[in-house]
User: Which sequence fits this backbone?
């Protein structure tokens, strides 16, 4: 059930041409290397020109000028004509979820971010769990990560924001074992999941199978494709490449992710939420054109509208 404020926000979106609570809401993550990474407002403008109405990015773009002045940021995005899916964590926030000595600051940092994104009508906070150490993620790490996520999720729930953790290659939270552990040792009430079709595939997991397993615990999908040879899950783990020189993620339509099967399952369970296109890098064409390719795929192959 929506609050009075959320109903007002949806009504405002409708008046501006925004869809009022469709089953699938299309967005795009815009911090794309190759042209968008250094100018967040350029990325928003060009994404809107392509046809995207919702954008996602990272908090580091806003810390200096907007973290203590959300009204100024609201004015900027209103002028461009976009709304936020969410605004993710990362530097300068504390992200060592595996270190209990840092949990107090970690929770304080992320609750502050939760309050910030609530100003823009966001309903979930998507987070990464920090860079992967050369030694990987230990069983002890996983225990501390689960505890910190559960506590953070409870704190965010108190302010009306749902925590959604993002499995990401080359982070402390990337593979099937780590996903299983955190899902089993946290509660669905406090900890949701962002399923990134590209990262999940490159971690050796079939994203359709994972979606069937996690169901409505998934809050958001990051929609990116991979090479067709990796369909169903890459057979070997890829050490982190230079994604501008040797990309492993592509605009939708490359053939490595079975998006029609994914949507068919989500239709069946009546899932609702964000399909957020993500490019990571665009080495072969301007990001605007890569964004256009993915949006055309969503429209022509999945029958969706932004």
Assistant:
């Amino acid at each position: 059930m929506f609050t009075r404020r959320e109903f007002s926000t949806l009504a405002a979106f409708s008046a501006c041409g925004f869809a009022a609570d469709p089953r699938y809401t299309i967005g795009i993550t815009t911090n794309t290397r190759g042209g968008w990474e250094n100018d967040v407002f350029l990325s928003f403008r060009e994404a809107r020109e392509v046809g995207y109405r919702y954008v996602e990015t990272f908090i580091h773009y806003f810390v200096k000028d907007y973290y203590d002045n959300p009204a100024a940021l609201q004015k900027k995005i209103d002028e461009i004509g976009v709304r936020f899916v969410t605004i993710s964590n990362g530097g300068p926030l504390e992200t060592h979820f595996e270190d209990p000595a840092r949990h107090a600051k970690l929770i304080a940092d992320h609750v502050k971010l939760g309050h910030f994104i609530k100003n823009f009508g966001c309903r979930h906070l998507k987070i990464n769990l920090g860079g992967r150490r050369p030694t990987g993620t230990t069983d002890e790490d996983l225990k501390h990560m689960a505890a910190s996520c559960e506590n953070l999720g409870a704190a965010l729930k108190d302010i009306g924001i749902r925590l959604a953790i993002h499995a990401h290659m080359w982070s402390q939270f990337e593979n099937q074992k780590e996903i299983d552990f955190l899902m089993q040792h946290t509660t669905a009430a406090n900890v949701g999941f962002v399923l990134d079709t590209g990262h999940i595939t490159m971690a050796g997991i079939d994203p359709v199978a994972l979606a069937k397993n996690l169901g409505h615990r998934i809050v958001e999908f990051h929609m990116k494709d991979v090479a067709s040879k990796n369909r169903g899950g890459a057979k070997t783990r890829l050490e982190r490449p230079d994604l501008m020189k040797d990309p492993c993620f592509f605009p939708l339509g490359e053939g490595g992710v079975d998006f029609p099967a994914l949507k068919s399952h989500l239709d069946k369970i009546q899932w609702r939420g964000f399909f957020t296109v993500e490019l990571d890098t665009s080495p072969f064409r301007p990001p605007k054109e890569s964004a256009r390719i993915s949006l055309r795929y969503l429209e022509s192959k999945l029958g969706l509208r932004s």
DSSP finds ten helices and eight strands in the chain. Confidence is low (pLDDT under 50) at residues 1-21. Residues 139-157 form the longest helix (19 residues).
